[in-house]
Specification:
Distance between the termini: 173 Å
Subcellular location: Membrane
Shape: rod-shaped
Protein name: Intercellular adhesion molecule 2
Membrane topology: Single-pass type I membrane protein
Structural class: alpha+beta
Keywords: Cell adhesion, Disulfide bond, Glycoprotein, Immunoglobulin domain, Membrane, Repeat, Signal, Transmembrane, Transmembrane helix
Pfam families: ICAM_N
Length: 255
Amino acid sequence: SGEKAFEVYTWPERLVVEQEESQEVNCSTDCDQPETGGLETRLTKTLLAQEAQWKYYLISNISEDTVLYCHFTCSGKQRSKGLNVIVYKPPKQVMLKLQPTWVAAGKSFTIECRVPAVEPLESLTLILLRGSETLHNQTFGRENPAPQEATATFNSTAHREDRHYNFSCMAVLDLKSHGGRVFSSVSHPQTLEVYEPRQDSQMVIIIIVVSVLLFLFVTSILLCFVFSQRWRQRRTGTYGVHAAWMRLQRAFQAQ
């Protein structure tokens, strides 16, 4: 009962490693004369060096999340400590697609970002950008199984000023909560060609042409009517005087 309790330590305390990578791990204890000690794991391990109170291993080909157990026995009592291993795949390739790339102002288009398998998926964020402006953030929960590709899709409406910006996608893998660092990668920028709808301008031209032709047609009808009336008045006026003169002559002859 008076015996001092001993502790087991691991170094590092947390391990974040890229898939298929190797990592060195140290197991140690504050027991002065441990009877036995070692490292329990399903992974391939190689003992690099050791002393009574510590053992130094190389863990090879780490392919999946796991827990390593350092253990020591001191005065017939065994204690162990687990070391959590998180395996990650950084976003090395980010692909952006605009559909369509040629769009009329006011019409919709789709921004799609795809990243080949990234792990852990719950630590990944896909950010869709227009210039430096964030259009959409896509995160992934633990319930989502790791897919062949992580995908984010966003529907937007084309504006005239969009032609002056580059569209891109940034993939961020944040492993700080696991004791790791932040990895990020950005897609090649894409441009969106925005044009004014041709149908509207053509309709304006058609309306103008039809209006001008209609005006000319009505004007020509009116001019024809005016000239014909004047010509008829001239003819009617001349014949009327002649007829009156003839009636007057007949009246005198009758007398």
